[in-house]
Amino acid sequence: MEWVEVVGRTVEEAKDRALDLLGVDEAQAEFEVLEEPTVGKLLRRAKGQARVRARVRPVAPRAKTDRRDRRRSRGGREGGGREGGGREGGGEGGRGGGRATTPRESAGERGGNGRRDEPRREAKAAPAARHERNNDEGKAAMRDEHQGEELTSEQQLAEATTFLEGLVAAFGVEATVSSSSVDESLDEVRVDGTELGLLIGPRAGTLDAVQDLTRVVVQRRGNGRSESRLRVDVGGYRAKRRDALERFTRQLAEEVRTTGGRKVLEPMGSADRKVVHDTIGTIDGVQSLSEGEEPRRRVVIVPGE
Question: Model pTM?
Fold first, then answer.
């Protein structure tokens, strides 16, 4: 993902503008502070501007050693449960022999049946352990095959299309999946059909979740790196939303230019804020900025300087 460079009166303001340009939240971005405002000696006021570089943070999958450790620890716990069962079996043999057990002495440690059963259980568990180890090694080999590769735009679109086709089939809806490159830094996969409201959800909440899930699948395939960002649209919702938001933004911008006041929009996601900022950037006499914290962050339109 390419870097964007922005300026602001403070470092935080520059970071906010960078997030709006990237269309992501702060947790999904990484920053480099190139320049900070200087503080005057007399009035203690900041001079100059802050300059920040930012990009969408590459997301790498968890290290394979961690996953194997978790599997081994889970296997150890399951094995311990089976050994406990063996001790209970030994207890029955102990009661048959007329001995009483104490709280500190387990029947499995004492009874002959418990000891004879343990080698059998270990023998049965050995093939399962080898099978699990072979599976781990096979999966690790598949991951290593593409380790460190950056997905091209064509590869990213192909991976996203395959995943969404499977997701649509799982939802049981009639739809087609297509893809294209919007520009050099953005790819889009579209799901078109009828009765797709289930994939959009109230206030596009399900659509946002589908987009996040698709990005995770693609990022794992490319070790968290790709040439461009990925956007998912269902039933043309994002395109319609973008057009409506652009018209609404132009209407508010004209009111700001006429009255000289300011207009505060309702809180919205980073993608919608980006649409507003991009639209304001094409209109003379007004400018936009973001205020508040997620998830209540909103855009404010003010007269231009």
Answer: 0.51
Residue position matching structure tokens 């699948």: 217
SS3 per residue for the chain: CCCEEEEECCHHHHHHHHHHHHCCCHHHEEEEEEECCEECCCCCCEECCEEEEEEECCCCCCCHHHHHHHHHHHHHHHHHHHHHHHHHHHHHHHHHCCCCCCCCCCHHHHCHHHHHHHHHHHHHHHHHHHHHHHHHHHHHHHHHHCCCCCECHHHHHHHHHHHHHHHHHHHCCCEEEEEEEEECCEEEEEEEECCCHHHHCHHHHHHHHHHHHHHHHHHHHCCCCECCEEEEEECCHHHHHHHHHHHHHHHHHHHHHHHCCCEECCCCCHHHHHHHHHHHCCCCCEEEEEECCCCCCEEEEEECC
> Which CATH architecture does the domain made up of 153-235 adopt?
2-Layer Sandwich (3.30)
Matching CATH topology for 153-235 and 245-305? Answer: no
Summarised one tens digit per residue, pLDDT across range 116-138 is 445 445 544 455 555 555 555 55
Higher pLDDT, 297 or 134: 297
Q: Look at residues 201, 223, 83 and name the one whose alpha carbon lies nearest to residue 149.
A: 223
Q: Is the pLDDT of residue 71 over 60?
A: no
CATH of domain 245-305: 3.30.1370.50
Tens of pLDDT, residue by residue over 219-236, are 888 776 777 889 999 999
Return d(Cα 53, Cα 32) in angstroms, integer: 5
State both tokens at 231. 């956007």
Read off the amino acid at residue 95.
R
pLDDT at 89: 41
Task: Tell me what pLDDT residue 177 has.
Answer: 96
Domain ranges in the chain are: 1-57, 64-145, 153-235, 245-305
